Amino acid sequence: MPPDREDPRLTVSRHAAELFLERGVAATSGDDIAAAAGLSKRTVWRYFRSKESAVEPLFAVSSLRFANHLSAWPLDVSIEAYLHAVVRPQDQTPREIADDVLAVRLVALLPKEPALRSAWLMSCHAAEETIIEMVARRTKRWSTDFDVRLCGAAVMTALRIVDEDIATAAITDRRAFTLPEVIDRMAEAIRTASTLPICDPVEA
Fold first, then answer.
1. What residues in the chain have per-residue pLDDT under 50?
2. Helix (H, G, I), strand (E, B) or coil at 194
């Protein structure tokens, strides 16, 4: 797909997310999603294997954005310094920020809507592959090595838990977080979960 063209599934995903948040998963049908997106039912079912999976693109675009940040992490910079330098909402488009907020609201809904968890985990798995490549680069090892994959999986799991905890606290408990607080939590999670020495500067 050309870089200037958005995945049409993402547009449908946004409509599905809004419906799930407004009505709940059980009260939302595939027909409802198709109508909201202005598409035929056949098109929606061609895009997605189930109505719950319709939110995968929304989850994925947010998860992969952060994973892509990690893929660009310079070798000579620590995780804390790097994240504080590159996680900048002012560098995001209004659409990207809106997508992130919508994804956070959905993550906070997971305890009440467990049917959405498979979509969340699928998006996390896609981001995990990018993180594994980052671990391989920082350790100068193959991405297929067991220890590299284990480290990447551990880091992604830690980030997923941070996302879930912060989303629940922010949306359900109405707790306010500053951006530095969120970045510190993420950096700490990555450092704690890393089973290989990737968090401090490494030699080029």
1. 1-4
2. coil
